[in-house]
Design goal:
single chain, alpha+beta, GTP Cyclohydrolase I, domain 2, four-stranded antiparallel beta sheet
């Protein structure tokens, strides 16, 4: 070993990028009550979670015409997240993050999604614990 730190050859994905005709749609710090966790005490009552989502959206050549139906609507993104969270108990934050990513990747305009799910009350003396995932379309 030479002692040199090897740099990664991976480049982080830019979400808004004019050269690729993509825009960035996001939701920040959505706080909800959720039935989540693997322990018995977590199955007895809800706990606060925070969700952040970033969507890389392919821009269409069709004019927007100031019509929300021509864009990925963040209100619909939030409604989808709420429907998942309120649909029943989930054991793992990883499972919840995957469900949120999957529902958003249904829209063919979405090239990639990054989802962060944080449990705000799970571990004493922490602000939050959780997971962040990123998924890309295969085409």
């Amino acid at each position: 070993m030479t002692g040199k730190i090897q740099k990664s050859n991976l480049t982080p994905m830019k979400y808004a990028d004019a050269s690729r005709s993509v825009r960035h749609v996001f939701v920040r710090d959505l706080e909800l009550e959720s039935s989540i966790g693997i322990y018995d005490h977590e199955k007895q009552k809800t706990q606060k979670i925070r969700i952040n989502i970033d969507l890389c959206v392919k821009e269409d050549t069709t004019p927007l015409n100031d019509d929300y139906r021509n864009v990925v609507c963040y209100e619909k993104v939030v409604t989808g997240i709420k429907n998942i969270v309120h649909s029943g108990h989930v054991g793992l934050v990883e499972t919840l993050a995957e469900k949120i990513a999957d529902i958003n990747m249904i829209d063919p305009r979405i090239v990639s999604v990054r989802v962060r799910v944080e449990k705000l009350e799970a571990i004493k003396n922490t602000t939050s614990v959780g997971v962040e995932i990123e998924r890309h379309r295969n085409s």
